[in-house]
# Entry
Amino acid sequence: MELPCALPNLKVDNRAAWNALKFHFHAVKPLLSKKVAKRYTPLRDPYAAFSQSAKHMTKALNGSYALARRAHRLARENHNASKQIEVMRKVIATKNLLLDGAKNYLTAEREGREELSKTAEECGQKLESVLVELKKVKDTAAEVEKVWADQKAKMQARYEDLE
# Structure
């Protein structure tokens, strides 16, 4: 036999009301504090027990629902906070990777500049030595030109003498 959510109809037999009361009592009792649970000791008269405990049961259920809502809200906030913390950890890890990459780039650039400056100095020294050699070759070429001009003049002089 079904009972309404409010107080049972007085025409309902005692056993159905008693079963409903026991069901509510056993379902709600674990949610209640010991002090409140003592109020729910079943009485001999199920109607009296039901009417006595209906108000307290409603308060207890509302309180337990409020606690459940609060616990759920706190859990949701905790979950959201943990998600935000996880996102921030990923952001920090990404920033650290970017910083490491920038440090590596700057180190490589600095080393590259040092190697480039060493290479430039070596090239400059080689270029100076090549210029010195080129000047020697130019001087030698000028001497050869002089000797060649002298020899040519001598040859022309001999040729003119022979004519």
Helices lie at 14-28, 34-37, 46-162.
